[in-house]
Design brief:
heterodimer, A: 274 residues, alpha+beta, 6-stranded antiparallel barrel, 6-stranded antiparallel β-barrel, 30% strand, B: 173 residues, mainly alpha, two-stranded antiparallel sheet, 7 helices, 2 strands, 4% strand, globular
């Protein structure tokens, strides 16, 4: 017993080192495995509030930039709105379809990005909207131009989002014109590009410059939101699937605003799949 | 004793705030690669007084890492790197023992030990910290080249900023 005690005293710092490392690795693995762990992220109430306050003060320096961005977005949204209003009017006139049910499937909740981690390969975004605003895990998040990520966990007033630039993100995407579809992943280094995987090689009509859009298969994102443009395509030797490099149209690191997509018919869609 | 506790406590808070509110937002890169990050909070571990007991260094480093992790959305990763740095500190100090030895009442600061000694000491520990950080972050050595490039870029800038802070404030202990 005395000898054991001696061992502990002599190697105390090594044992403490190993113990603390074990705690760290436990945290890392826990966070990566379990959904909804909020205590140690920036969506935690105390940290989120601090960042919110900081943003409030830091905001004054970039106000003009933000206003310009929002105005540009308003312009394009207005243009879209008129376009769709016209189409809707025509449809109702000629086809007599009940368009209401189609147009009301998605609801957007505007949010501000209060934290955007950029250091590593598993990047997260924190938004200042949470459970109280009707946000739940697995909702899609889009930015002013394209996709941003998927909600991972929510607290009362904040939500933690897996950024597209995260090795864990998987987005179902299709290619314009050819309608081939695959899974979009990030390989962890270049923040401008993502990789479209699992597109069978027999799709001949895929060419550089084609637009990649969401499929809408997953109930997370509405269909046809642009994500990026094909930069390169390549068929690895002995592989039946193309390797497609996609240039993102959305600059995730400079994004300031986000819209969380609530699929109002999610339950209904999922229930048909059971 | 109390004054050094106060100094180190204040340093903990200031470096923490500086890291999360200033340097966290400075992550930069070019051509879509985010390489340039500045980690200055390890300076807290570097500057603890030489007489600090090893378990206390490990505990304080763990606490600092955990606080940083909260704001970086990376539970455990900064903490792991900090604990590693704290663990290696006595060994690095031993490697760089000056001819006349250390005065245990001092802290290993630039003013006490000289600029070239401090630069060597800071660069070594920061290299260990940053390499450990990116390795644990990737969780595999499959991306070794990526880890190494990020380590080099982050190390150069972090060391520069750390030395600049030491030159500006030039604390005695």
């Amino acid at each position: 017993m005395y000898n054991l005690l001696q061992v502990f005293i002599r190697n105390g710092s090594i044992l403490l080192f190993l113990l603390l490392q074990a705690v760290c690795f436990f945290l890392i693995v826990q966070f990566n495995r379990k959904q909804g762990k909020i205590a140690v992220t920036t969506a935690n109430a105390a940290v989120g509030t601090t960042l919110d306050y900081y943003d409030y003060w830091a905001e004054f320096f970039t106000l003009q930039e933000k206003v310009d961005g929002l105005m540009a977005e308003n312009d394009s949204l207005r243009a879209d709105l008129y376009y769709w209003k016209q189409i809707k009017a025509q449809e109702v006139d000629t086809l007599q379809v009940d368009t209401g049910s189609i147009y009301n499937q998605y609801d957007l909740v505007g949010a501000e990005i209060i934290n955007n981690s950029v250091l590593g390969t598993n990047n997260m975004i924190t938004l200042n909207r949470g459970r109280e605003d009707g946000i739940a895990p697995h909702m899609g998040v889009i930015g002013q131009k394209g996709l941003l990520g998927v909600v991972r966990s929510v607290s009362e007033n904040y939500s933690s989002v897996i950024s597209l630039l995260n090795r864990q993100s998987r987005i179902s995407a299709r290619i314009d014109r050819s309608n081939a579809f695959g899974t979009l992943v990030w390989e962890g280094s270049d923040t401008r590009f993502m990789q479209l995987k699992a597109v069978p090689k027999h799709y001949e009509r895929i060419s550089i410059g084609d637009t990649i859009r969401t499929t809408g298969f997953s109930t997370i994102f509405p269909s046809d939101i642009p994500i990026g443009v094909i930069e390169e395509k390549e068929l690895p030797k002995g592989d039946n699937h193309l390797d497609i490099k996609v240039r993102l149209i959305n600059d995730i690191y400079t994004a300031r605003f986000a819209y969380i997509v609530r699929n109002l018919k999610k339950e209904e869609i999922l229930s048909t799949r059971e | 004793m109390t004054s050094s506790t106060f100094i180190n406590g204040a340093r903990f808070i200031l470096l923490f705030l500086l890291q999360i509110f200033v340097f966290k937002r400075l992550s930069l890169g070019w051509e879509g690669y985010i390489y340039i990050n500045v980690l200055i909070y390890p300076l807290f571990i570097l500057l603890l007084p030489l007489r600090t007991p090893k378990p206390a260094i490990l505990g304080l480093a763990f606490l600092m890492g955990l606080c940083i992790d909260w704001f970086y959305d990376s539970p455990g990763i900064h903490a792991s790197a900090s604990v590693f740095t704290a663990f290696m500190r006595p060994y690095v100090l031993y490697w760089y023992t000056p001819r006349e030895g250390y005065n245990v009442n001092y802290s290993p600061t630039k003013k006490r030990m000289g600029l070239s000694w401090f630069a060597k000491y800071a660069a070594t520990l920061l290299a260990m910290h940053i390499f450990w950080y990116f390795s644990v972050e990737a969780f595999t050595f499959f991306y070794l080249l990526d880890i190494l490039t990020k380590t080099v870029f982050t190390l150069v800038l972090s060391t520069l900023v750390t030395l600049m802070i030491m030159l500006i404030f030039n604390p005695v202990d």
